[in-house]
Amino acid sequence: MRIGYDIDETLFPFMPPLIKFLAGRGIIVPSYERTHSFDLWKVWECTREEAFKLVNLFYDSKEFLELQPDPGALDLLSKLRQSHQQYAITSRPARMAPATLFQVGKHLPQCIMGVHHTGQYTLHSHGNEAATKGTVCHDLGIELFVEDALHHAEEIASHGVRVLLLPRPWNIGKPVAKGVIRIPDLSAVLDYVNGSE
Fold first, then answer.
1. Are strands 85-90 and 162-165 parallel, antiparallel or unpaired?
2. Which whole number is the average pLDDT over 129-158?
3. Which helix (H) or strand (E) holds 191?
4. Which of 51, 56, 89, 173 is the most exposed place for a label (fewest CB within 10 A)?
5. Domain covering 2-12+69-196 in this structure, CATH number
6. Looking at the predicted structure, is the pLDDT value of residue 171 above 80?
7. Distance, CA of 22 to CA of 1 (rounded, Å)
8. How far apart are CA 59 and CA 18, in angstroms?
C-alpha cells in the first residue's frame, strides 16, 4: 500500500513549539488547546499577513529546524516501511524543502520515499493552487493518508483516498466527510493498516 502523511501536527508537533517560540520573543498567543481554527489569524485576532509573518519567523529559526517528531512516528513508520511505500506531503512552502528534508532524514531515516511540498500554507495561497495534497496523492497513487487539518482531509478524500484524521483542537467536534475516519493517535494507523489488509 502507498501511505501518505502530513508533516506538521501529524509526524511532527508544530503548534506547541510555535507558541513556545513566540512566547520566548514576548509574543503571547492563545494556547494550543484554544487553537480552534487552522487559520491562525482567526485565533490570534490579527491580520492574515501578521499571522504569516509570525509563522515565517518560526520557519526561519533554529527552533523550527530542531523540531522533534511525535514519539510514535519513528516506530510506526519503521514497522510499515517493510511492506508499504510511505510519502510525506506537506502544505509548507517550497522554500522549506531543505529544512523538511533535514528533519525527515534525521528523525525518520529510510522511512519516507519522497517529500512533496504543495505550498498551500503561504500568505499568497488562496486554495486555488494547481498542486493540492489531494492532487499529489492522486498522482502518487496514495491509498491512505494521515492528516490533522479537516479541510485538507476532505479535499484528499474527494480524490478517492481514505484519510485518517488525528484529533486536534481545530477539528474536534466538527463533522467529517465521507472517506475521512477519525483515529485517536498515530498508533491507530498501524491497527488500521493491519485491519485493512
1. unpaired
2. 93
3. helix 187-196
4. 173
5. 3.40.50.1000
6. yes
7. 39
8. 9
Pull the grid cell for residue 163. Answer: 484519510
Q: Cell 514497522 identifies what position?
A: 79
Residue 170, C-alpha cell as written in the block: 481545530
Q: Is 156 helix (H, G, I), strand (E, B) or coil?
A: helix
pLDDT digits (tens, 9 = 90+) for 16-47: 999 999 999 999 999 999 999 989 999 999 99
Kindly list the distances between the CA atom of residue 185 and the CA atoms of 51, 137, 192, in Å, as whole numbers in the listed order.
28, 22, 11
Please count the residues of the chain: 197
pLDDT tens track for 97-123:
999 999 999 999 999 999 999 987 666
Burial-class residue 14 by CB neighbours within 10 Å (0-12, 13-18, 19+).
buried
Q: What are 129's three cell numbers?
A: 493552487
Closest CA to 146 of 12, 28, 29, 27: 12
Domain map (residue ranges) of the chain: 2-12+69-196, 15-65
Report which of 130, 17, 182 is spatially closest to residue 9, judged by C-alpha positions: 17
CA separation for the pair 168, 105 (Å, rounded): 25
Joined grid coordinates for residue 72: 510514535
